[in-house]
Amino acid sequence: MHANDVAALIDPVLAALRRRPDVEAPELRSHDAADRLLLELAASDHAEAVVGREVVVIGDTHGALTLGALALGARHVRVHQDSIVAERALAANAAALGLSAYSHHPLAEVASTDARLALVRLPRAFDALDAIARAVARGSDPGVGLLAAGMVKHMSLGANDVLRGSFGRLDVSLAKRKARALVARSPLPAGEIAELEPARARDRDLGLEVVAVPGAFAGASVDIGARALIAELDGAPRVGAGGTVIDLACGTGLIATTLARLNPAARVVASDVSAAAVASARLTAAANGVDVEVAQDDGLGAQPDASAELIALNPPFHVGAAVHTGIAHRLFAEAARVLRPGGELWVVWNSHLRYSPALERAVGPTRQVARGPKFTVTASTRR
Fold it and tell me: Are residues 243 and 325 in the same domain?
């Protein structure tokens, strides 16, 4: 397909995309050069695997790849997105564009023997890429091609080695608009490719076992922000029977597990946008013998107003690859909505971010619990 024809098909789609319900800001985009490169390569080098066929898309953030593939003539797109916010952004953009021939699938089930092409946004974590490569190689036709792209500044040679673990041939594209693609072909026989098992580790200092499925933030380790917050939770109010305690943006569930130990009679909820985080939190709670309700949710959308006595939060400070405070501010507002008057929000944050005024505005009076060179822990009382 000629470059002008490709542009005529995909440009209207990319121009119409919005990030909602994800954070929207002038400096944040709904697609980038890596998305465009994947679509251009799909149309120019793999048109026979796109037009009239089923295509697999993994890691789409707001719908550029899924809806772009449909605009290029794909009959149907099988999609895996780790984030529920990404799923909802795709749905909103699909409705706005009138494109609906796609379906969501767990990673282990997203590949199809009917599909000859998988378009993949390169994840940062190699274990996540390994799980993706294995899923595509094990579940696809032997003629499948896997196109994985990212921005050059975020790529490393280690990704090549990961893909070679599941595919017999790997080619690397030239950089274009500061993006580059890896093209994997000739999947190894399915019998030679096992599914990745969750990673497990015991943290002696915390006395907790961490379990992480591929792609979970920090893996089977304890990130230093979570460690700083857990160290102070013994000073948080205790919640008894009939009360609710929440670990918001729970990751692998270590904070939720700690809260369950400290509040054995309370209902403990762990919530995260990430499917990998939710699966990991369930496994971590079970490995430590505590009862935690785990939910994949955008913030605390499933929780009623004024329903919790205590919320703990280790907020992300990245939106995609960009350092941005937008998600943290949204989570502060969600916590304020769900806390009962007098309830407390305990937050750990990078000290240079100086979130105290924002917490005061969103939640209520905020006191400093602990402060170090890197992290500050605060407690805010709901007005």
Answer: yes
Q: Are residues 162 and 177 in the same domain?
A: yes
Q: At what angle do helices 64-71 and 33-45 cross, to 10 degrees?
A: 30
Domain boundary among 192, 220, 244: 192
**Measured CA distances, 305 to 302, 333, 339 (Å):** 10, 11, 7
Same domain, 216 and 346: yes
Q: Are strands 102-104 and 244-248 parallel, antiparallel or unpaired?
A: unpaired
Task: Give the bridge partners for 268, in sequence order.
Answer: 245
Domain with 98 in it: what CATH number? 3.40.50.150
Same domain for 121 and 206, yes or no, is no
152 and 178 in contact (C-beta within 8 Å)? yes
320, pLDDT greater than 70: no
Mean pLDDT across the stretch 190-213?
Answer: 94
Q: How far is CA 286 from the centre of its chain?
A: 22
Give the whole-angstrom CA distance, residue 83 versus residue 63.
12
Q: Which two tokens stand for residue 247?
A: 């670990």
Instruction: Judge if 44 and 182 occupy the same domain.
Output: yes
d(CA 286, CA 284): 5
Task: Tell me what pLDDT residue 195 has.
Answer: 86
Q: What SS3 class is residue 210?
A: strand
Within 13 Å and on the Cβ side, how many CA atoms surround 262? 22
The mean per-residue pLDDT over the stretch 245-260 comes to: 98
Q: State the chain's maximal CA–CA distance in angstroms.
A: 66
- CA-wise closest residue to 138 among 80, 192, 184, 182: 192
Phi, psi of 254 (to 5 degrees): -65, -40
Q: Looking at residues 158-181, what average pLDDT do you find?
A: 95
Give the ranges where 17-140 is alpha helix by DSSP (H). 33-45, 64-71, 84-97, 126-139
Nearest to 120 by CA among 92, 93, 159, 158: 159
Long-range contacts of 170-174 (CB under 8 A, 24+ apart): 173/37, 173/41, 173/149
The number of distinct structural domains making up the chain is: 2
With beta carbons less than 8 A apart as the criterion, state whether 148 and 184 touch: yes
**pTM score, whole prediction:** 0.94
Which tokens sit at 312?
């703990």
